[in-house]
Design goal:
Layout: E1 5-6, H1 9-26, E2 31-35, E3 50-54, E4 57-62, H2 64-75, E5 80-86, E6 94-100, H3 104-118, E7 127-131
Antiparallel strand pairs: 1-7, 2-3, 2-7, 3-4, 4-6, 5-6
Helix pairs in contact: 1-3, 2-3
Length: about 130
């Protein structure tokens, strides 16, 4: 991999697929993709959304409304399934683990849709591969 960020939909999916391929080739524990913070967060210092992928599992943190959107998205990917939901008392949201058995391009498309559909980022959002 020679680049680590993209803001064009096609280039983002290509970047994500390359990161997934690199993750698999290196047999690293996981890869992390981060996106821009929400510019409409009412001035709050909301954390930037992120998606982790390791082996065959996506890991995301979501709010209640984001969880509803995530469930709808997973329904569109029949080869994926939500395996684990954790909502610790001290956390404001839910950690979700999704088993995803597919090729790098399909996994990349799903990751991009998580940012667009679940975290509601605009089409031109910028994403970074933070770790591979």
């Amino acid at each position: 991999m020679t680049r680590f960020d993209a803001d064009d939909p096609r280039e983002r999916r290509k970047l994500f697929a390359e990161a997934i391929t690199a993750h698999r080739a290196r047999a690293s524990p996981f890869l992390t993709i981060e996106a821009d913070r929400d510019p409409d967060a009412d001035g709050e210092d909301a954390p930037a959304p992120w998606v982790q992928f390791g082996e065959r599992t996506f890991n995301v943190d979501v709010t209640e409304s984001e969880l509803d959107r995530l469930n709808a998205l997973v329904d569109e990917f029949p080869e994926f399934r939500i395996d684990q939901l954790e909502s610790p008392d001290e956390a404001a949201g839910t950690n979700v683990r999704i088993t995803a058995r597919s090729d790098a391009n399909r996994l990349a498309a799903f990751a991009d849709r998580v940012f667009r559909d679940v975290y509601e980022r605009p089409e031109d959002y910028r994403a970074w591969v933070a770790s591979v």
